[in-house]
User: Fold these one by one.
Assistant:
Number 1:
Amino acid sequence: MNEKRVALVTGAGRGIGATIALTLAKENTDIAVVDYAAEESAKETMETLAACGVTARYYACDVSDFSATKTVVEQIVKDFGKIDILVNNAGITADKLLMRMDESDWDRVLNINLKGCFNMIKHVTPHMMRKRYGRIVSISSVVGLMGNAGQANYAASKAGIIGLTKTVAKEFGARNITANAVAPGFIKTAMTDALTEEQKQAMYKLIPLGALGETQDIANAVKFLVSDDARYITGVVLKVDGGMYI
Amino acid sequence: MTTLEKLKEILSECKGEDLDITPETTFEELDFDSLDKVDIVMQIEEAYDISLGDNMQLSTVGELIAKIDEAVAAKG
């Protein structure tokens, strides 16, 4: 597809989402950044995107809010004319052992991580259907495949994304809309930077490739799944984890 | 805009081509699949602020128009 595409990336103000947005922008894709935070916090990301020579706009929106996501999708379609690519990346953690996890910890994580994906897919797919084209990638996690002590809410939300993705792949395949998930393992972030050398060594032992992943590794997987090279791939969970979960 | 004109707009957008429909046109000849049908019903419901339900068994455009007009009238 040579025509310039439009990607909506949630949680793209910073971190993995920002790297995904930047990677797609380098592929000549206009970017709609959807993030809950105020626009000022994503200033650097927006400047970097603009430097790629594409149109990039920022939309402040809580993805767990059904009507707010409807409004923001309509605004993006009005501003860009279409949405070709949806990347569901927005997510939070609220880690605690289940014994200590309260209802609000559960609801908050499920609402943003899983319901947020439903909301975006629900409002974006009618536009993709009419164009007979769409690429949806949702960021899951290896934790959604293997579970993780202290992350019952997060693991459930990320496992939910896999079920959602596979269903969307089946329901919308006839409209040339693909839906796939990327499941990152341990990715180098500010949080992992804060770990001690001993903690890092323990982590490396779990990873056959012996290193943490970079946000760019995740963005590369997304870039592939939305590319024409992946036109016949739908309903898959692509693990990007250095072999951590095999 | 008449119901037929609005319906022509919705069905054409869904099909991705300009459709020439009359009340006698059958849905069988329009060849919409189940996804199209859900999309059409949702668009009609939004346009008229009515609820049509999920299990309509209609054979012609005319029958759909009657159903829409009936729901709009019931709304008051």
Note: Chain B has a mean pLDDT of 90.
Number 2:
Amino acid sequence: MSQPELVVVGCSHMTAPPEVRESLAFTPEQVREALRLARGERILQETMILSTCNRTEFYSLSADPARAESYVRELVSRFKGPDLFGAGPYSYTYRERDAVRHLFRVAAGLDSMVLGEMQVLGQVKDAYELACEGGGAGLFLHRLLASAFRAGKRARTETGIGAGAVSFASAAVSLTTKIFSDLSDKRVLVIGAGEFGRLTAQHFASEKPAGLMISNRTPERAKALASELGGEEVPYDALFPSVVRADVVVCATRSPGPIITADLARRAMRERASRPLVCVDLAVPRDVDASVAQLDNVFVYALEVLRTIMEQNLSRRRRDVPRVEAIVEDEVEKFFLWARSLEVTPVVRELRERFEAIRQEELRRHMNQFREDQRGHVEALTRSLVNKLLHHPTTRIKGFDLESGDGLVRLDAVREIFDLRIKDAAGPITGFEIDGGRTGDGCPEGTPGEGGKD
Amino acid sequence: MNATIVNAAIHLLNTLLPMLYALAALAYVVDFFRDDRLATKATRPMLVLVILLHAMYLALRTLSYKHIPLASISEVMTTTAFAVTVVYYYVEFRTGTHKTGMFLLTFSFLFQTVSSAFISEMGVFPEVLRSPLFGVHTGSAVLGYTAFAVSAIYGVLYLLLYHDLKSNRFGIVYRHLPSLDLLSTMSRRAAVLGLVFLTITISLGTLWGYLERVRFPHFYRDPKPISTVIVWVVYAIGAVLHYGFGWTGRRTVHFSLFGFALLVISIMAVRLWIPSFHVGFEVK
């Protein structure tokens, strides 16, 4: 009877272009359906499907990895057609230790399109929840995912892999919070409701500012974005009062000339009693006149400045990669300590050793109460007693069907009941602590100059 | 309490305090540059410990030598180190940021080290140092001046960050200092604290001067209280401009720095004019 092992079949931004990844992406409904089919067809013991805009991966537990791999490819072809997920250049397969390591690297942000991007941790959690709902996750995946989340959390808290803004929108927010520590009493004006303006507005909206004003040449688009983000639409052709009210002005229009002129900014600063004003200029050509930056208490940040910050942060993240790899290896090791415990022979051996240790201890404590000529009998009696007590459990354990999830659960229960836990092995799943960093739909930011998020 | 034990405790604390300040400052330095979790966790407990032990040290000195520890340069330095640390603790507690502790605790460490190296038991000291009224008066003056110094330090940090943000320099100052408005808040809170203590100083000084008018008849033409009142007025105007007229940012920081410059100049000028604390009041 062979021990089941983990198989990962998938494709990601590392191997497939965006259009292929897009074609292979599974909706949550498709994931549910695929899990239902896999469960019914009984080829895979446990299954989780991680599908985001940057990767589609099947994590499967099977005693026959080759069969599992071909089954997954066949399953995908039923949903997405036969060409894309074949044995071609777009997909990859990992087994056993490599498969576990791959998941942990994904969870730690090492495999993300933007290094250290932690949204993927939330997406892994979503995938796991779907697997639990669809009956795809059993003991093995529960433990595996607990370890993966721990690896992700450790990477984020023990290293700087997720630190610093690495997108234009987040760099804009990060810079702004270096001037205003708290945006909850500040007003943000976004001029331009195109893709870039929308994205930046979303980032600022997540900081819960006191007010969010949206302005656009086409008022309907501004109105739509404002209502989506809980802001207000302000007129594009009368920006002055809005600039006076705002503390942060984000410009992302296609205007051929500056919208925030030096004269407008000077007059606005007089009206605002010189309260600091941050202008984030995401437009090409620039929306904010270059001379505005000369004014006192006005901070102007254009695309090239934001890019500098992003590159600095990315290079700091790269420096922490070896530390994160070490965390991943540590968690892989711990996980395999636990996984190795799910074999019959060591469990039976450890069970016998435990009983024998108890017998020896009791003999040591009570032997002096017996005469010399009685001690041999006591020794034989206790040995026989232990053997008889262990005979039936040993026979039953040896009969566990480890190719079924049920067998693994029983074996794990034996370890739990008789306290045969392995020191330093991966602990049981205790709930999730993934705070923040979840995008929900996992869609790309689409900002120029950067990749989408995982 | 046994005088020998008290003396031993004073000597022990005198040796221990520079080391504790060094450790606390080191924790803040590591926290500032490296975001080290252990150092971050250590900062607040170290700060509290050093404040408690320093308070105990000053209290023991006061009880044992029966005078306020302001009778010599070394005593003034240890009291100042304590005042800087207390004011910093107040600011950290109010703003919740510990990223500026490095700048203040380093001062405290230097002051305490010099003090510990040269401090001695004063055999003879003026009788006036035994007065509790005088103790509160001078104690609040030290705290007030220290708070203004702390406010000025935050003002300088504000201007450094402001300059870097304006010139798009994103180096160590940008990465590790708190935000501009937090630095401005810290500067303002320290200044307000200084204003409160200086108010107490001036009020008690006036009362004490009145009560001792026979011994010190020149009190009302003493340049020290006059310059102190001028400094108080400058800081009071700054507070009114902020709370009444909404002045924020660089203008309030400039005001705080102006107030501190005036304070330093007035102290130096008065020291040149009269070599003692007050006219007719010889305490060296």
Note: The CA atoms of residues 241 and 247 of chain B lie 6 Å apart.
Number 3:
Amino acid sequence: MKTSGLLLMLVCAPLLAAAQDVDLHEGALIESAEVQGVSLDRLSPELRRDIQELADQRLSRERIAALASRIEAEHPDVVTAARDVLRPDGRVRVIFLVAPIGDDTGLAANINARYTIERVEIAGVDENRISQKLRDELQALVGGRLDPANAERLSKALEAELPDYSVTRRISRGTEAGRIVVVFNFEPSERRFWIPLPANRTKVVYHEDQGWSSVFDFRATVGSHAFSVGFAGGNNDDLIEEYSGYWLRAENRKAGTRRLGLSFEFGSYSDEWKASTLSALAASPSIPPAYSHRTTAQPTVTFAFDRRLRFSAGADVSELEPLAPSSVTQHANAVVASIDFNQTWRPESGGRQRLIAGYDYRAGTRSLGSDLVYGRHLAQAHYVFRHQHNRLRADVLVGGLSGQAPLFERFSLGDTATLRGWDKYVFAAVGGDRMWHQSIEYAFRNFAYFFDAGSVWDTGNPARVRLSTGVGYHDDSWFMTFAVPLNDNDVRVTFMIGFRLGGAVIDKR
Amino acid sequence: MTSADEPRGGSVRLCFFIAALVACAAGAPHGWQAMTTSTGGGVLRVHAPSLEIIEGAVLGWLRDGRSVRLDFELGVLAEPGGPIVAQSRQSFNVSFDLWEERFAATHIVTPPRSVSHLSRKATEAWCLEQLTVPLGQLARFGRSAPFWVRLSYRVPDLRPDGADDDPFTLQTLIDALSRKRRDNQPGKSVEAGPFHLSN
């Protein structure tokens, strides 16, 4: 007998609640059993019979749950919930409510949305660090069904309250069948540091004219402390010199406060020089001489204004052993200061933008015992926009030197990252004291087209602008490039290949 | 202290690079040996019983009660490695019923279509079954011309949040050498063929 009250109850019932519903009246005498939402004809005869045989039996939750599971097994596109309606005579009507999974967005997103939340747990942080309002919202989930969209919203809200952590959500079985436990798990995130680790220097690159260069930068982090050891093998991709050696670096990115960082780096490198560089040096007596070994020490203090902006100051002490045995060792000891900006945007329109910009000043000064007195300015900006398979990137570098700067401070262009297609040892074998460079690159599915322009020259000499273009496969680490100088006497293609672990950001510091 | 007119130390550096290439090759996607095709109902389907999608991190994610989105792409090629002549892209939501210990999948179309109570292999097979290319798009092959298929999938949910900010470690180097890019989503891609519509 279907009354209007019964119909209303059926409509309003939590249709997709667990099949193993504990609200069933265990032990009650069953008046009848029926299936709603799917025709009985669509069930197997055995299942139909077993459902009908419930009449005049005592209600067993276990038996009801098993029948609900059999309905789902025969129709895997549905979920089944069991309900009973208590009659005035104490007997119950059992109703199997069947509904397509796809009709419920929550279930379609996660089948566990059919279950009732037994409790909500916080793991990884002290619960008291979460606002009372948010804790109340979390506890309000208890007793209801899991709503994946709402749970995701709460995860985001938790991350917003404790931005030093990332929040993941786990679900596990509850203590009773059909019940689940939702755990919001907090894990310390890299975002907790305002001072990021410097870009990894690891690379193995090949330039058709300049040969192989390799650098390996191995790191270990313990909390806010980072330690790295690096090895360079015949690296001529960064500087005029070709250097091999090692460095050791230790840093603390949270020295009492996340605004303050300390670092110390020691390096020892053997240097080799191209004949073209030595010839150019011989013709330019104003440039400090080449050296055979370079030993450096760099203590630095960094102050972060916020996650995006930071200021660093320190010293860069270098000892340069001369090439010629009769010469004396020189010291290039500089005060260094830099300001860096780094931000990533994810606009609602889609895609991701990232801007890295910085200004770097270095001053070799006699107050630090330097034999070479100089000033060096370098400004650089790197912008990347990614959207689906598209990537657009632009780089700008501008630098200037004054005084007597050692060769490792002089600017160079024409390698695997700048003025691609040109060979720096051909047009500026000792680099220059002035430099600008811009690069723009578009890539679709990492197949890239780029245009580079730049100039490196010495004060008093004309600045010739050099252009190049090319195509290649460029992903975040790997590249294979074919580049052509646009305003050279010869039209030739230069081949470059390799990988850089620290990404494609050009760094001429 | 010597001049370096020619790139020197090349053999040592070449070894580094060859090691990187070997690692790269080792990390390259492997083929699914038993990929086959079938036609019926005016569409082409692929079958890849040896394909294992719900495993490793995906399986761990599902067993934690989370759902995983799988993005599939099936492309038909006129030659190995050639351009795609016809293709189908479909997405699915997969979750693991913690109490039933069975998988459920929803084909993200309008209206969505779902199944539950599936085993791991049945879930993978059901997803592939929905990934069809209309035979009308393959008319150029006739009954005898060979074609190849490229099946790939991605798991966008498993891309770690804040990957941009991950510190670089030895593991990062290993990942880079094995072509496991930081911005990459787990997934696989493989080609197989030749197939014929007459089959």
Note: The first helix of chain B runs from residue 10 to 26.
